């Protein structure tokens, strides 16, 4: 087998949309292309986007669903895209979302006869319940994604907790834990960069500073953070709390902080896209407060660790996997009094917090290069297992799509609508897909 594998990466989100999974796909593609093979990224089309990457990006037609779900939805069974990818000699398909991307992956598998790896990143049942009110539709959507996942040749999860969540949805297959990495280098930001954010946001020397980075959504357990800070203040703690991020609940969270009398203590920066500036926040803080029980991986905890910052986490949460209490951070029960105790502990002994942060940086840090290296080391075995077993999956056969496309093309030609335009772009225009 050629050492240089052609890996097709699929996901719903990709720049211009950036979220945790899109960032994962970007790092997979970059590291595969740089270190081990050829990356091909297949993602939904966005109007006006130019893809300038050291690897190939193939865009397939999409419809605008940004108002309802935050990103465009691709059309998975698109013959022109499948034909284009068939020319790429794909060895393995790696999908990062169990919805349209995996539908596309299954059609592509039937066309190129390559195995599918799926990485399960987040608790999709919670996302579905937040997006859909009717219970029977929620159940149908969950059944659909489980069916899609079970059709893959190997399933990876980003943590044991993610695997347990997947099992709770009715998934009966096996899985392999394959952690995500971080793109921040190990070590703290330059002193002048830290000084700059301190001046901008009024962060005083000697005052314990706590940090949260992420989506400003209540389901991230931010209410617990605010209530814990309120109790810590009542008990005499002096501190600053910096919230970095944006989200649908941003304004409500600010109102809640003010109502609790935390106006002077809390700083809300909004979203910070500058990675150097974000690294400066991690480097300045004394402890990262992340009591979320929603996240399956808590990659932001590893980003904090990269900068020598330990975290306060809920005991038993996915984010707390691999964290030893008192060594890499502080593990608490899921209540405000416990969080207040942790805040007071750090406020009274900042030196001990710095020691935990240094240990976290040395012991739990995982770079994207190493994370993707573990993944690419596994790819050949997945390919070998697939070729030896040749499982039957009952995928939508690509040949049927091509026959349908040819019939449509012939019909359009006879109607003198198609004329001499390029096969795919002409059809796009007729269907008004932008």
Automatic annotation (TrEMBL):
Record domain Glycosyl transferase family: where: 199-360
InterPro entries, alphabetized: Glyco_trans_1, Glyco_trans_4-like_N, Glycosyltransferase_grp1
Pfam families according to UniProt: Glyco_transf_4, Glycos_transf_1
Segments forming domain Glycosyltransferase subfamily 4-like N-terminal: 18-184
Record keywords: Transferase
Tree of life domain: Bacteria
Chain ranges passing through the membrane: none
GO molecular function terms attached to this record: glycosyltransferase activity
Keyword Transferase set for record: yes
Protein name: Glycosyltransferase involved in cell wall bisynthesis
Originating species: Sporobacter termitidis DSM 10068
Lineage: Bacteria, Bacillati, Bacillota, Clostridia, Eubacteriales
